[in-house]
Amino acid sequence: MSQKENIQSHDRYREDIAGRANVADSPELLAYYKELETYRTGALWTIANKIEPWQPKSASVPILWRYRDLRELVLKSADLVTPEKAGRRVVYLNNSEKSGLSAAVGLLYSGLQTMRPGEAASAHAHSSSALRFIMEGHGAYTIVDGQKMLLEANDFVLTPTGTWHEHGVDSDGSQCIWQDGLDMPLVNVLEAGFYKVHPDLRQAVTEPLDSSVGLWGAPALRPQNVGWNKPYSPLFRYQWGATYEALQRYARVSEGSPFDDILMHYTNPLTGGHVMPTLGASMQLLRPGFVGKAHRHTGSFIYQVAKGQGYSVIDGQRFDWQERDIFCVPSWAFHEHVNSSQTEDACLFCFSDLPVIQTLHLYYEEALIDNDGHQRVGG
């Protein structure tokens, strides 16, 4: 019996003995339900199987958003609306049938934003935590609480909850595109979201350029007599060059994971924990020819291909990806990654709700046992 068949058989057994809701409708019950509705109440057994499943059942599905399909549409938005009128000129990724949720997977938001040379968005702040991953172009910058940072391809940048932030492209730069990632759907489900515009529309730059990199960017070193008591990382820009170098060093001394090969988490340099309380991020290196085995875990994950090409099998579907493509792995979906090249590394950037899942002690993981740890591809 396969792992999947064993789980299904076990579930049927539990349903037989554990009192799962199995109540047939009758005229008397239907009338009773209607009477309950008049008092804004309901019978738990009519929804129990849905709200208390035996295992996670994500409302999201695996999706691959190909950059070659989206790039021209993202650039076209700059011909149609200005940053001032749009507020944020972004093409968002949608994986939700629920109106107003606008999630790319689970309770994570993702979108592609573009700006032309000389353009700048007004400064604002919101309850949601946000991150940026730079896809193409040069001359982009962000300002977070008075600190200006220059952005280059594959840099990972934070704009944490409540911080004043704004983005733009210097006049001598090129048109830029980056991915935005936010916990906005989570914050909205919690009904805890606030948004405000800076009273002057622009911030004053009050710190030296890239000051957080100068203070906190050296691995395994921390500055003396510099205090920080906020719940997110004091390092706002994680540069691609240093990240890729760290992955290569790790690869030289490690056999890697059978599922993810060489995976490293971006961390708060003060605590070693996640960069923000609700959003975590990682970068992984798949060495040439790497063929990962399948596993699954709780939490929702959005990947962007930073380097190379390959494919991932997610819940039995194969998705072939190349640089700048984006794909998602819903919670509790079996997934495995493969580097198609025999000579070049592949690198996958990922952001997730892992900090929330781990803080609430909801993280579970299991490997696929059947078929030598690989899924059967069905589509």
UniProtKB/TrEMBL annotation:
<dbReference type="InterPro" id="IPR011051">
    <property type="entry name" value="RmlC_Cupin_sf"/>
</dbReference>
<dbReference type="InterPro" id="IPR013096">
    <property type="entry name" value="Cupin_2"/>
</dbReference>
<dbReference type="Pfam" id="PF07883">
    <property type="entry name" value="Cupin_2"/>
</dbReference>
<feature type="domain" description="Cupin type-2">
    <location>
        <begin position="284"/>
        <end position="350"/>
    </location>
</feature>
<dbReference type="GO" id="GO:0051213">
    <property type="term" value="F:dioxygenase activity"/>
</dbReference>
<keyword id="KW-0223">Dioxygenase</keyword>
<dbReference type="InterPro" id="IPR047183">
    <property type="entry name" value="GDO-like"/>
</dbReference>
<protein>
    <submittedName>
        <fullName>NADPH dehydrogenase</fullName>
    </submittedName>
</protein>
<keyword id="KW-0560">Oxidoreductase</keyword>
<dbReference type="InterPro" id="IPR014710">
    <property type="entry name" value="RmlC-like_jellyroll"/>
</dbReference>
<feature type="domain" description="Cupin type-2">
    <location>
        <begin position="112"/>
        <end position="178"/>
    </location>
</feature>
